C-alpha cells in the first residue's frame, strides 16, 4: 500500500517545488542544469568579449543589477522599454545614465539560440554582474538562479523613491536597505561597488563646491575640474578606477568619497566606521562580504501577484 501511494506524494512535492520556483521564492545554482547546461559559459564568454572591447561595460552591467533589484525585486524590469501603456524604468531620471543594455541583449540572444525561451533576463543580469566583478579583478560566487521576468515596469514615482540618492545620509541609506532586508553590513559591503566606474558631475557638484568639512580640500579642488564641461564625469576611485579592490574604503577614511552617500558611511563612529576600517585594511573581508551581500540582494523577489514570465526579448514583454 505505501509503495503505491509514493508516486502521488512525489508528484505533489515536485509540483510544490515548481510553483515556489516560479514565484521566485526558491532559487538555486543548478536551476538550468538540465534545460540550459551551458548558460554560465555563454554569459561569461559574451561578457569577456564585450568588456575586452569596452571595459566600461563591466561597471555598467553591475550598476544595472543594483538598479533592477532595488525596484520591485530582481525581475529585469529595468530592461523594459516604455510602451504607450506603460512608462519604462530606464527613462526615469535616476536611471537615465544607465548603460550596458546591449550587453544583456547580446547574452540573451546567444542563450535564445542555444536554449530558447528558457533563461530569464533577470538571471542573465545576475550572472553578468557576477562576471563583471570577476573581470575587474574582484571575487566570484555561486549565483542562485530561477528568477522570472516581470511583464511590467514600476511606475516612475516608485522608481524615484526606491533608488538611493547621491545625497542620502546614513540614516536614509540604512532605512532604504533595511526595507529590502539588507542590513548595515550588507549596505556597507555593497557600497564598495563604487570602487569602480564613474559618476556624472551633477551627482557630486554640491559636494566638491560646497562648504563641506568632510571632504579633503585637495580632492575637492581636483574633482571640480571634471565639472568644467557639459558632460563631466569623475571616477569613484581615481587611483584604480577599473580594478575591483578595497580602495573605496581607504578613500572614505581620507575624506575622498565622491558622493555624499559614499562619505556618509564614515566619520560618525560606531559599527559603520568599524566596517569601513576593516574593509580598508582587509580586502579579503570586503570581497567575502560583498559576494554574500550580492547573493542576498539578488534574492529580492518581485511583489507577490506580479505577473512574471521568461521574456524572449529583454526589452519587451511576450505577446
Automatic annotation (TrEMBL):
Pfam families: peroxidase. Residues 1-24 form the signal peptide. Ca(2+) 2 binds at residues 195, 237, 240, 245. Disulfide bonds join 36-115, 69-74, 121-314, 201-227. The keyword Disulfide bond applies. SUPFAM superfamilies: Heme-dependent peroxidases (SSF48113). Heme b binds at residue 194. Binds 2 calcium ions per subunit. The record marks 63 as: Transition state stabilizer. Its cofactor is Ca(2+); heme b. Ca(2+) 1 binds at residues 68, 73, 75, 77, 89. One of its GO terms (biological process) is hydrogen peroxide catabolic process. The active site is at 67 (proton acceptor). Belongs to the peroxidase family. Classical plant (class III) peroxidase subfamily. Belongs to the peroxidase family. Ascorbate peroxidase subfamily. This is Peroxidase. It comes from Triticum aestivum (Wheat). The gene is LOC123156231.
Amino acid at each position: 500500500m505505501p509503495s503505491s501511494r509514493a508516486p502521488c506524494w512525489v508528484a505533489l512535492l515536485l509540483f510544490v517545488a515548481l510553483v515556489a520556483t516560479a514565484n521566485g521564492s526558491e532559487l538555486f545554482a543548478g536551476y538550468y542544469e538540465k534545460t540550459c547546461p551551458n548558460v554560465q559559459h555563454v554569459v561569461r564568454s559574451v561578457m569577456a568579449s564585450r568588456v575586452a572591447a569596452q571595459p566600461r561595460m563591466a561597471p555598467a552591467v553591475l550598476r544595472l543589477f543594483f538598479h533592477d533589484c532595488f525596484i520591485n525585486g530582481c525581475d529585469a524590469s529595468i530592461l523594459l522599454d516604455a510602451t504607450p501603456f506603460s512608462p519604462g524604468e530606464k527613462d526615469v531620471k535616476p536611471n537615465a545614465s544607465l548603460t550596458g543594455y546591449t550587453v544583456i541583449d547580446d547574452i540573451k540572444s546567444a542563450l535564445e539560440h542555444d536554449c530558447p525561451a528558457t533563461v530569464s533576463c533577470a538571471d542573465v543580469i545576475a550572472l553578468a554582474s557576477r562576471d563583471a566583478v570577476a573581470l575587474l579583478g574582484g571575487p566570484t560566487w555561486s549565483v542562485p538562479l530561477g528568477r522570472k521576468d516581470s511583464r511590467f515596469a514600476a511606475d516612475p514615482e516608485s522608481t524615484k523613491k526606491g533608488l538611493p540618492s547621491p545625497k542620502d545620509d546614513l540614516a536614509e541609506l540604512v532605512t532604504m536597505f533595511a526595507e529590502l532586508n539588507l542590513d548595515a553590513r550588507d549596505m556597507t559591503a555593497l557600497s564598495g561597488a563604487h570602487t569602480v566606474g564613474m559618476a556624472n558631475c551633477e551627482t557630486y557638484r554640491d559636494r566638491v563646491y560646497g562648504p563641506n568639512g568632510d571632504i579633503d580640500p585637495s580632492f575637492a579642488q581636483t574633482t571640480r575640474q571634471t565639472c568644467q564641461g557639459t558632460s563631466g564625469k569623475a571616477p569613484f576611485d581615481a587611483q584604480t578606477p577599473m580594478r575591483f579592490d578595497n580602495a573605496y574604503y581607504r578613500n572614505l577614511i581620507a575624506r575622498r568619497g565622491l558622493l555624499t552617500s559614499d562619505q556618509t558611511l564614515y566619520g560618525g563612529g560606531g559599527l559603520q566606521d568599524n566596517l569601513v576600517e576593516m574593509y580598508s585594511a582587509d580586502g579579503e573581508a570586503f570581497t567575502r562580504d560583498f559576494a554574500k551581500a550580492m547573493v542576498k540582494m539578488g534574492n529580492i523577489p518581485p511583489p507577490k501577484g506580479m505577473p512574471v514570465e521568461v521574456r524572449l526579448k529583454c526589452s519587451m514583454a511576450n505577446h
